[in-house]
Amino acid sequence: MASSTLTPSCFGSFAAAASNKTSYSSPAAFKPLKLPLFWPWQKVKMGPLSVSPMGFGTWAWGNQLLWGYQESMDSELQHIFNLAVDNGINLFDTADSYGTGRLNGQSEKLLGKFIRQSQVKNDIVIATKFAAYPWRLTPAQFVKACQGSLERMQIEKIGIGQLHWSTANYAPLQEMALWDGLVAMYDKGLVQAVGVSNYGPKQLVRIHDYLKDRGVPLCTAQVQFSLLSIGDDQLEIKKICDSLGIRLIAYSPLGLGMLTGKYSPSKLPSGPRGLLFRQTLPGLEPLLTTLGDIAEKRRKTIPQVAINWCISKGTIPIPGAKTLKQAQENLGALGWNLTQEELNLLDDGARESPRKMIQNIFQTR
């Protein structure tokens, strides 16, 4: 940056360079200018918070069953966090249930550790989700869950406290207690804003109105939203969010990896994902072909196009990353926009693909 500013000392350097070709050709004198992936004014308002147009999801950070997490990965995960922050990402999504077995809550613990070692910790927004476990039956127990997350992350306040799923379909009385728990944690100043996850259209309107009557704005709604999961319910949720001033956070924007172009019916991931991929991938050829054509034309990758589609639809996608390569690829979804023609082609490709992603069983109507 300094080498591109013309000061008296710079003119002196140019003069010296004229008589010294070695000095003039030094790579240090011509350090390329690196533009940000997005400008500060392109941040997205999320209630009282301002966040990057894309966040990072941390479901895999601690999950051995589905994502093959090992504690030996922690060093690379820290590099992923640092890379994201260095490129302006300030939204990180997690949950108190992320982690398996003895590693339950590991995602929150790692995020807290990485934040403490960060130089921009005050700008980072943590959106964590509190599970609607059957033993969380009272508002006080839900507040205690929030306090547990604060302790694991060792932070003073959570950016967005989210109810991970609705119990309306099987335990409606518990649902009301959990809603009151959101109100209580907001009133106590434990969270800056509140949100929900896996709420369908009708229940989303109900909780919005319930919280509004108690002076608590519903800030976010997090649902599975991608080219692979788009349907009538998801589109209706998006319309409701737009009309009520709720930000839609798109989780699984790459369909658990099916929208990366890295897998085929003959090349499946191991574990439970392989079973789902075997059922779904054979019907995705129209969509994957369209993604590939646009990616080649734009000199992007298929995942970058799929994530940019989510951004172009007015959502905040939160793709995950287990490796630096994945993180770098995710960041490449920022700094450009699909055209309306390209969006239409992708929408058509999604409609022509006979198989869709199975919706989360916890999503209500």
TrEMBL record:
Every NADP-dependent oxidoreductase domain range: 53-347
Signal among keywords: no
Xref: SUPFAM superfamilies: NAD(P)-linked oxidoreductase
GO cellular component: a single term: cytoplasm
Transmembrane segment boundaries: none
Keyword Ribosomal protein: no
Keywords: NADP, Oxidoreductase
GO molecular function ontology, one term from the record: oxidoreductase activity
Protein name: NADP-dependent oxidoreductase domain-containing protein
Taxonomic source organism: Cucumis sativus (Cucumber)
Taxonomic lineage from the root: Eukaryota, Viridiplantae, Streptophyta, Embryophyta, Tracheophyta
